[in-house]
Amino acid sequence: ILHLVHNLIHEEEEEEDNRMQNVGEQGHMALLGHSLAAYISVLDRERLRKLTTRILSDTTLWLCRLFRYENGSAYFHEDDRDGLVKVCRLVINARYEEYASEGYAVLNFKQPVIYQSASGRPGLGQHLCSQLGLPLSSLCTVPCNTIFGSQHQMDVALLDKLIKEDIEAGKLPLLLIANAGTPGAGHTDKLARLKDLCDQYSMWFHVEGVNLATLALGQVTSAIMAANRSDSMTLTPGQWLGLPAVTAVTLYRHEDPALSLAAGLTSSQPVAKLRALPLWLSLQYLGHNGIVQKIKHAATLVSTTEKRFQFLISVSLCVQQVEDELSSPVVLFKFSQEMSLCCKRSQHLSCLTTQLSGVDVVELEDEGTCVRFSPLLTAAVLGTQQDDVEALVEKLSELVPVMSSTMCLRQDFREETHRHSPSLIYMEDPSWPGLGAVRYEPQAEGMDESRRKQELEKINTELLKKLQDLDTDIIFSTGPEFGTEEDCIFVGMVTEDVDVSELVDTIAALGRDIEESGRLLENMTEVVRKGILEAEIQLQKANEEKLMEEGVIRQLPLVGSVLNWFSPVQSSVKGRTFNLAAGSLDSTEVTYSTKAQTGRPSLQDTPSSSSKRLPGRVSLSRTTASSQINNDKSSVEPVKM
Question: Where is the PDXDC1-like third domain (predicted)?
Fold first, then answer.
């Protein structure tokens, strides 16, 4: 059975890199918790109750102290959205007294409204409405500031206005979801002002986000410290501390245990409390100092990265932090817009995700496409250190200049490709970070659609192989794995010394050579086929003439041999030779006659069999490309028949 499981895990594994992440000792401690939970669940009921109560109370106490959340309760859940769903049920039960008996009917009198930020987690509000059975009209998305403050913080004044409008419309403001670190930019809402607003309108105040991890540090900014005034907040310690298979935790404050039980935040089943066991083991293994050190290390990586980026003139930070460095452990950067007037397509930085580990691409409404480095979500798992930041900066120093020259030469590549139309077609693919994509179109006429498609695929496949053999640093490929364009050649990034005109000329010349060679092969095949048929006819005719000359008796096996021994007959059947150069079928008589050696040249002397140089390896730089490409063109001229 274990062998079967092993095969199921690795059956689609093709490379060594496709294996699971390296799990250290602290990771093994977390995984051990799941095995222990299964064993503990078979204990007798009384012993199980005492043990699970101890585990749950210890873990809750440690988390509340660690993240400065006094007098809180904890709910442990696999889906990091599930805690908020349960909290919403708690608030509905608390605000609608008849909800337990009447159900959703009581919501018709006053429709509940849940408020969330436009910079919040995508799909979170829709998930809440789906799980709670609420219409989407119960979800209100609050825009972010556009004039004052951060572009990624909730507009408090506009929220106040929306709440008043909902109250006037007979609705019930139920809950506000604030961010301590938005998913994209890592910014923190004005939590203190939002909490005051919630108190004013008797709303539940829930906070989530990666910046909540900094509550464990010795020095915490006032913007983050305000989160401990919230009614509930969701933590993801597994991500922050690099612990695999550890649940998320929602800390909350509520005085009525019956409502918490009705909402599903607490359970009377002891086994349900065992979800806290992996975290209970991990917190003890790391200790308070170990936990704080991991979070502080992530914040230090952010500070170091921002300082090192100051020396990269081609890279700019997308979003400047509004608080000090410890409040938002996220770095967002993109291609500098000012570096070149022709280089304004920063979405091509997405290619960095294939080159660097620990970064990803995010889409921001105002800044566009940016690259995000969030050590708090990746450093503990990947083991990121200061040396890795230096390697990141060094890699950027290599990639960005190449990206700059590539984007500046894209328009030249497009124009040069159009110059070779209709044999070369420029394929538009904005997501491709390289120079561009082209397709060679065969110019033969009279082909049907199916034959033309086969010829197109054949020529472009062969052309790609020849381009990959060129002596150049340019990478030629078939493009993205899930790209929409087929039978295309994608040209990768190039340096500034590349001669785009010579590059396109080379592609077009090699394409023509492949197409002409294909036609030559087809013509030669037809000539050979006709020659074989003609040879068969002539040989059959010669055999008939031989029969007429020698007679029927000589064709008998035994009699013919004796007769030929007594009276030999000079055979008149002559061999045939096929001249590929001339495409003609000739007799072998001139070959074996010493007097006719100077007549027709033999096959070995024909131009078609002369030694030829294979296509060479060319350099596409402006200094040496012209002469080498011309030599290469002459080396692949087809044989003239």
Answer: 417-519
What is residue 180's DSSP assignment? B
**Of the residues 257, 288, 319, the one at which a domain ends:** 288
342 with 452, same domain?
no
In whole angstroms, how far apart are CA 213 and each of 180, 235, 513? Answer: 9, 8, 63
CA dist 72 to 13, 226, 230, 233, Å?
A: 45, 15, 11, 10
| pLDDT tens digits, 115-128 | 999 989 999 999 99
In terms of phi and psi (left: phi > 0; alpha: psi -120 to 50; beta: otherwise), the region of 436 is left
List Cβ neighbours of 306 (8 Å cut-off, separation of 6 or more).
317, 325, 331
- Domain check: are 87 and 215 in the same one? yes
Whether the link from the prior residue into 422 is cis, omega within 30° of 0, is: yes
> Using CB atoms within 10 A of its CB, is residue 423 exposed (0-12), middle (13-18) or buried (19+)?
middle
> Is residue 331 domain-shared with residue 395, that is, in the same domain?
yes
Query: In which domain, by residue range, is 268 found?
Result: 58-94+104-288
**Residue 321 dihedral angles phi and psi, to the nearest 5°:** -70, 140
CATH of the domain at 350: 3.90.1150.10
Query: Which residues share a beta bridge with 112?
Result: 172
**Total number of domains in the chain:** 3
pLDDT band of residue 433 (cuts 50, 70, 90) is: confident
pLDDT of 208 > 50? The answer is yes
Indicate if 197 and 207 belong to the same structural domain.
yes
The per-residue DSSP string of 406-456 comes to HHHHHHHHHHHHHHTTTTEEEEP-TT--SSEEEEEPP--SS--HHHHHHHH
Task: Please write the tens of the pLDDT for every residue from 61-81.
Answer: 999 999 999 999 999 999 999
Q: Picking from 80-94, 156-170, 436-450, which range would have the lowest pLDDT averaged per residue?
A: 436-450
20 belongs to a structural domain: no
515, 447, 457: which is closest to 485 by C-alpha? Answer: 457
Separation between Cα atoms, residue 360 and residue 383, nearest integer Å:
17
Q: Is the overall model pTM greater than 0.85, yes or no?
A: no
How many of the other CB atoms lie within 10 Å of CB of 202? Answer: 10
Q: Give the relative orientation of helices 500-550 and 386-419 as an angle to the nearest 10 degrees.
A: 60
Burial track 465-474 (b if 16+ CB lie within 10 A, e otherwise): ebbeebebeb
